[in-house]
Design a protein that fits this description.
three-stranded mixed sheet, 38% helix, alpha/beta, 16% strand, 357 residues, 10 helices, 12 strands
Length: 357
């Protein structure tokens, strides 16, 4: 079913996390007359300071609250006349899911269901015919792992999640699909590859590596470091979500990738070269001297890759950033902020995981 949508009043869940923060900045820059309500529980990876530039604006509201609070979400949808939900809120760090899966199942499955129930109540039961969208942001990890020679994931790749995190996201994808097919809720879903860019919490690969390299600390790499990920600059991701919300087919899933497959170790070498060039007098040069290898983690997926052809063909999506331009922008952003120098990161091991969405 093809129906264009003109979002005016958005509820952004997880809008103080990494991708959510960048989405809010992107949206209000592109559409300054839009109204945005951010709902975020402010866990360790969410920072209200990320959104400080919008505080006090008449078209921006921040609400600290949990997506599991169905009553709160229902009230916000009514009071703010929300016509679009962009659902980023998630527990998303694979290592944390291995050692504490309960929070992932609760937030990613029950939390998504809570949002869907609230949306159904307000948009279908109370306002039949009301134009709306529920956009669900998911991950390529639901598809499992690829060998070096396997074709990239498409929207028809069978689900085969290999971690509690990936399994919880796969379940949430299915619940969103069910609410569209069973009740007629106007939903879309995107499955993205690894995001990078500003505001990412420094337990993640790129900001953690930058932080540790600048301080002359060891940068641990799992196994042989040849795990391959498709790296997507965060604003290319947001441009993709924008296209899907406005022009995507109801009930459809779109894969969003960056066309940038990189082995973890090659990514770290590229970061070292950027930092060597930027700080040639640093005692830490060459920064590659700080790379160390550690025992691989359980169930570590070998390769992810996204096939963008459906998205490109149907909606004209093309990533704007190359890996080189995106990585340089990211490094420069962290050089201009003090939020990378966080000393209390637990288990500081480089992984392939994306930040809280």
């Amino acid at each position: 079913m093809t129906t264009t949508h003109n979002p005016q009043r958005l509820l952004v869940t997880g809008g103080a996390g990494f991708i959510g923060t960048n989405f809010v900045h992107y949206w209000l820059e592109q559409y300054p007359d839009a109204h945005i309500v951010v709902l975020d529980v402010l866990t360790y990876a969410g920072r209200r300071e990320n959104l400080q530039a919008h505080e006090g604006k008449s078209n921006f509201r921040f609400v600290q609250g949990d997506i599991l609070d169905q009553g709160l979400v229902t009230t916000l949808l009514r009071e703010e006349t929300i016509d679009t939900i962009v659902h980023f809120a998630a527990e998303s760090h694979v290592d944390r899911s291995i050692y504490g899966p309960d929070a992932f199942l609760k937030t990613n499955i029950d939390g998504t269901h809570s949002l869907l129930k609230a949306a159904k109540t307000v948009w279908l039961d109370e306002k039949p015919g009301f134009a709306h969208r529920f956009h669900h942001v998911s991950t390529d990890e639901v598809y499992g792992t690829l060998s070096p020679t396997d074709p990239a994931f498409t929207e028809t790749t069978p689900y085969a999640p290999n971690s509690p995190y990936a399994a919880s996201k796969a379940a949430s994808d299915h619940i969103v699909r069910a609410y569209q097919h069973t009740y007629g809720l106007q939903t879309t879903t995107s499955n993205c590859s690894n995001n990078y860019g500003p505001y990412q919490y420094p337990e993640k690969l790129i900001p953690l590596a930058i932080s540790r390299l600048l301080q002359g600390q060891a940068v641990p790499i799992y196994g042989d470091g040849l795990q391959v990920r498709d790296w997507l600059y965060v604003d290319d991701h947001n441009r993709g979500i924008d296209l899907i919300i406005r022009k995507g087919q109801i009930g459809e899933t779109y894969n969003i990738g960056g066309n940038n497959e990189q082995a973890n170790i090659n990514l770290i070498h590229a970061l070292c070269e950027l930092l060597d060039a930027r700080f040639p007098e640093s005692p830490n040069v060459p920064h590659q001297q700080h790379i160390t290898y550690v025992t691989d983690r359980p169930g570590h997926d070998r390769r992810y890759a996204i096939d963008n052809r459906k998205f490109s063909h149907e909606l004209g999506y093309i990533p704007q950033e190359t890996f080189q331009t995106g990585l340089k922008k990211t490094v420069e952003w962290y050089m201009q902020t003090d939020n990378i120098l966080i000393d209390n990161i637990k288990n500081p091991v480089i992984t392939h995981n994306r930040s809280q969405q």
